Amino acid sequence: MAEIRAFLTGKLARPRLEKVLTGLGQTDFEWRIVDTGVKIAALMTEEIIKRRVELPEGTSLAVLPGRFRGEPERLAEHFKVPFTRGPDELADLPAFLGSE
Predict the structure, then answer these.
(1) Beta 3-9 vs 59-64: how paired, if at all?
(2) Is 27 exposed, middle or buried (0-12, 13-18, 19+ CB in 10 A)?
(3) DSSP states of 74-88 as a string?
(4) Mapping DSSP to helix (H, G, I), strand (E, B) and coil, where does residue 35 land?
(5) Residue ranges of E strands in 36-85
(6) What share of the chain is helix, strand, coil (3-state, %, to 5)?
(7) Tens digits of per-residue pLDDT, 54-94?
(8) CA-CA distance, 26 to 40, in Å (whole number)?
(9) In whole angstroms, what is the distance from residue 33 CA to residue 37 CA?
(10) Do 9 and 36 form a contact (C-beta atoms < 8 A)?
(11) pTM for the structure as a whole
(12) How many beta carbons lie within 10 A of that of residue 99, not counting itself?
């Protein structure tokens, strides 16, 4: 079974994130987009994520927007899943994930 990576985002960035992830083609992981319920992803806080987000079953890594200024370690502790901060720009996501 492939690992599942959850990409947290806001309402405005969701369509573009989906386009970027779809454009990756074949990957060694499955991806899921998790809408945090905020309009602009950079405005989400640790508390908003803790209250509103339910990670998909089997998530092995949660990827936060690069401009998220909270502490991924505290979210990892809360959800019992590793969290990491992605790149500041969605266009840089394929390189961040090791794709060309």
Answers:
(1) parallel
(2) middle
(3) HHHHHHTS-EEE--S
(4) strand
(5) 59-64, 83-85
(6) 35, 25, 45
(7) 999 999 999 999 999 999 999 999 999 999 999 999 999 99
(8) 29
(9) 12
(10) yes
(11) 0.94
(12) 13
Q: Quick: pLDDT tens for 3-59.
A: 999 999 999 999 999 999 999 988 899 999 999 999 998 889 999 999 999 999 999
- Residues in CB range of 41: below 8 A, 6 or more apart: 8, 9, 10, 12, 13, 65, 67, 68
CA distance 86 to 71: 13
Structure-block tokens of residue 85? 């901060």
Determine the length of the chain.
Answer: 100
Quick one: tokens of 45?
A: 């806080």
Place of tokens 């060694």: 28
Dihedral (CA of 73, 4, 56, 11) sign: positive
